[in-house]
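Contributing new records

If you add data, match the layout below exactly. Sequence lines come first and carry their own label; structure lines follow with theirs. Keep one chain per record. Anything else will be rejected by the validation script.
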Amino acid sequence: MAIARIAGITLPPNKRIEIALMYIYGVGRSLAQKILESTKINPDTRTHALAEEEINRIREEMKKYKVEGDLRREVLMNIKRLKEIGSHRGSRHHKRLPVRGQRTKTNSRTVRGNVRRTMGSGRKASAQKT
């Protein structure tokens, strides 16, 4: 019963290994399943129940994929490149607006932040008129 630390991330001990691998940036459900299939580890196994040898097999398999720091760096470099060449997508990133063609009149709270709130018509409530 060893603490599973893969790609600099400590995996949660009481979760299934298939779900625990998703805590690593760049690893989704399908990649986690592919890794477990190639290392011949049961996806239903809990993380704390893995042997050291199984953890090492997962680490070796993970080296084939770009995850965590390398992937974050690549994404940031791609965004920086878009900004430098002056593309539309780059300018949208710079202005912190939705990049992929979504509407902005409403429903862009996740990108713009929750700062702009609607205020109603501006009329006072009837109880406050007196």
